Amino acid sequence: MAMTPLERKAAFKAAVTLAQTTLDAAASDVCGVTWFHLSEGLANRRALSAEVQAKFAAYIGRSVRTVFGPSAVAAA
Question: Is the pTM of this model over 0.70?
Answer without folding.
Answer: yes
